[in-house]
Design goal:
transmembrane helix; DUF697; GTPase; membrane; transmembrane
Length: 172
């Protein structure tokens, strides 16, 4: 009987994740596009609000996909989204003070930062939910740790902020 349980568990894991993985990637890709576009809003407060909403709805849609309860944690997700938006906005503003970089490149760097952040956030929640996690046990500390691991593996680096690489990541 134990062998059957193990076999059934393996079968379920082998069948379910690829379906969710493809759908999750599509959800993430759509929000990367939205965040990249939202970063072009010229008023920082409005841009921050737009990116906050995009993060909030990204997490909500991934919760729906993985049947994770969302309603009880809406406030936490909203606060975390706002914090993430402020960080991306500050990073985008920091690129504008780098000497010798053209204005169009500076604007595109902000879009790249927003897209990269949304991609990382989406991947974090996708992996977290696939591993059986919920919103109850996800934290900003876990996201930071995930981001650092991505950086150490080389998945996030200076070329990640190149607008051409962001477009390649979005469209495949």
């Amino acid at each position: 009987m134990t062998e059957n349980h193990v076999i059934n568990t393996v079968k379920e894991e082998a069948i379910v994740p690829p379906i969710h993985d493809e759908k999750a990637n599509k959800i993430i890709r759509n929000y990367i596009i939205a965040a990249t576009g939202g970063s072009f809003v010229p008023i920082p407060v409005v841009s921050t609000a737009v990116i906050t909403g995009i993060q909030f709805f990204l997490v909500r849609d991934l919760c729906k996909l993985y049947d994770i309860p969302f309603t009880s944690r809406k406030i936490n997700v909203l606060v975390n989204s706002a914090l993430g938006s402020v960080v991306t906005q500050v990073a985008a503003m920091a690129t504008k003070i780098i000497p010798g970089v053209s204005a169009p490149t500076k604007g595109l760097s902000g879009a790249a930062i927003a897209g990269l952040y949304i991609a990382t956030l989406g991947e974090f929640y996708k992996v977290h939910f696939q591993d059986g996690g919920t919103l109850e046990d996800a934290s900003i500390g876990d996201l930071k740790k995930y981001f650092v691991e991505e950086y150490k593996r080389g998945d996030i680096n200076a070329s990640s902020l190149n607008p051409i690489n962001v477009v390649k990541r979005i469209f495949g």
